[in-house]
Design a protein that fits this description.
Blueprint (H helix, E strand, L loop, with lengths): L23 H16 L2 H14 L4 H13 L3 H14 L4 H20 L19 H6 L3 H24 L3 H20 L8
Helix pairs in contact: 1-2, 2-3, 3-4, 3-5, 4-5, 5-7, 7-8
């Protein structure tokens, strides 16, 4: 499966107001995490953000930033959990829905590389030359297909929420085009419009 590369720059959400964070230690940990993310050291950022959560679990930005860091280290389950928590804390930030959609889509794509799928992709997400596109989807076990379908459907739902919240016709067009590509993959996986 050719993996479409469509990721809007996911920015680290800075903690802007110290009124949002009463604890200076939490602010220092979040600032340190931001520095690590900017350097591409996601594991160190994750360590700081997890420590920050131990001090205060109610800071939206910490959960969002932790979700972004987890995406970058391909820990999609954890990213999805953190981004859902961020949405529960602040449902008004459109980029959280977009970032959650990216995590869910990447998670679905990761099943293609799992040992149980019998389908392998290269680093760019393209099928290895030995596997035809038609055979690739046929070789995926039904249980894996169902997991992938659920993740793609959730991703599409979050992309649509993002579109509803933004005011950009260009971004809307780009995301809708990407959704159309994902819907083609769903058809190849055997999705018929019935939920699993």
């Amino acid at each position: 499966m050719k993996k479409a590369i469509f990721i809007v720059t996911i920015l680290f959400v800075a903690v802007i107001s110290t009124a949002c964070i009463n604890n200076m230690a939490v602010q220092e940990l979040n600032n340190a995490a931001k520095t690590y993310i900017e350097k591409g050291d996601y594991e160190s950022a994750i360590d700081r953000l997890e420590s920050s959560l131990e001090l205060d679990r109610n800071i939206y930005e910490t959960h969002y930033n932790l979700g972004v860091a987890y995406i970058n280290v391909k820990k999609y389950d954890k990213a999805i959990d953190e981004l859902n928590t961020a949405i529960r804390l602040n449902s008004k930030y459109a980029n959280t829905y977009y970032t959650l959609a990216v995590a869910q889509e990447n998670h679905a794509d990761s099943f293609m590389d799992s040992d149980e799928s019998n389908v392998k992709t290269d680093e760019g997400g393209n099928l290895e030359a030995t596997t035809s596109m038609k055979d690739a989807y046929k070789n995926i076990p039904q249980e894996t297909k169902e997991k992938m379908i659920q993740e793609y459907l959730s991703s599409i739902e979050n992309y649509k929420t993002y579109i509803e919240m933004i005011n950009s016709s260009q971004k809307t067009e780009e995301v809708n085009s990407h959704i159309a590509d994902m819907e083609k993959v769903l058809v190849k996986l055997g999705y018929t419009g019935q939920s699993y």
